[in-house]
Amino acid sequence: MVKRKAGRGFGVRLITLALCSLTLIPLKAQAEENGQAGYTVVQTAVESVPVQEADGTADAWEYPASGQSAPEQDAPEQSADGLFAQKLLSPETEAALAWLSPEELVMYEQMKELFLLQQSQTEQTRQQMLAVEAWLQASYMQAQSAGNAQMPGVQAQGVSAPVSAPDPASVQLLAQLGQAYDSQKAQLALMQEQLELVLESARVRAEEADRVYGPEIIFVGDSRTVQMRDAVGANPYVWICKSSEGYQWFAAQAVPQIDAAVGYGTKILLNLGVNDVHNVNRYALLVNQKAKEWTAQGATVYYASVNPVENGQYITTKMVSSFNDKLRQKLDPEIIWIDSCSWLQNTGYTLTDGLHFSSKTSRNLYQYYLSVLGESE
């Protein structure tokens, strides 16, 4: 059986794109003195507020000419890109990378370093925005106290509250930082998407390596299935079938054999009931139970209807129709019903003894089953 091959490689062009996406908007505050008493606009306003250190500490700073310390702020929740950065460095991710090719691994490491660099730069921009916002708010408070607040409020992207200040240069700087921050976040989102694709490819390959693959098809049935097996000759499939048998044999012998053979990708075709139509409820109960187990292993379960018969002492057309209708209604939705009875009635068939089909009909029915299962010979 051929295993599904995970997608490989994004190529050099993706790395080039990621490298190009690191271009950051250069920011420079154009400081000028505004001549108003008590105000001095400095180009290094961003540096007036210390950036929070990795351990969460920061030196206290004072509002200009106020003597007041900055108010305490709740620790911000970690951003989505920050959480993803942690994922990139986790042991689980490192284990999954073992399934990448050497070329893919080199590409992944380059992309990861670019992402972490961009994530760090984006966080720096965010800290700068907070610093400038604090500067503007403090300046506005000072202007209010001096009765000199003249400029309208300005809302910057990513800033929690509108600010007003008598300093056009600082307002412009905040707007530029907001634009840079949005651009950096967009670049981070693109990089994260690319890295997620690589990690998903590794995850799929790891899952495939752990899968147990079974035969493509398992045919399960009674004497009609035995005759079909003999009529088609050599084939690559598994046949679990026995003449003159029904539910008791299915439960005691066939099910354990299916359990031993089934695997990922296996298609199980069941065709039983012509010898014991009265067991319809027991068939439905057991098949529903086992189908859950088989599908959990990656198999697909089909139940083919009991096929046409001639009216006889032990089985009649009416009994077959009743069995098919009841069983179809009782089977769970994940079990695929094959109405081979109607197909044979429409296309024609030959019975040799009122119950068993001719070799030609058996071969035709076999080809029909294969077509429904998506197989061909």
Spatial order of strands in the largest sheet: 2-1-3-4-5
Largest sheet: 5 strands, parallel
Number of helices: 11
Summarize the amount of helix as a percent range: 40-55%
The stretches of 5 or more residues where confidence is low (pLDDT under 50) are 1-73, 149-166
Q: Kindly provide the radius of gyration, computed on alpha-carbon positions and rounded to a whole number of angstroms.
A: 36 Å
Structural class: mainly alpha
Could you give the count of β-strands? 5
What is the terminal separation in angstroms? 15 Å
Write a brief caption for the model.
The protein has helices at residues 11-20, 80-88, 91-96, 102-145, 168-210, 223-232, 247-261, 280-296, 317-330, 340-347, 359-372; strands at residues 217-221, 238-241, 267-271, 300-304, 336-338. The chain is mainly alpha-helical.
Write the layout of secondary structure elements.
Blueprint: H1 11-20, H2 80-88, H3 91-96, H4 102-145, H5 168-210, E1 217-221, H6 223-232, E2 238-241, H7 247-261, E3 267-271, H8 280-296, E4 300-304, H9 317-330, E5 336-338, H10 340-347, H11 359-372
Helix pairs in contact: 1-4, 2-4, 4-5, 6-11, 7-8, 8-9
Could you walk me through the main structural features you see in this protein, from its secondary elements to its overall organization?
- The chain is mainly α.
- The protein contains eleven helices and five strands.
- The chain has helices at 11-20, 80-88, 91-96, 102-145, 168-210, 223-232, 247-261, 280-296, 317-330, 340-347, 359-372; strands at residues 217-221, 238-241, 267-271, 300-304, 336-338.
- Helix 1 (11-20) runs parallel beside helix 4 and helix 8 packs across helix 9 (317-330).
- 29% of the residues are buried.
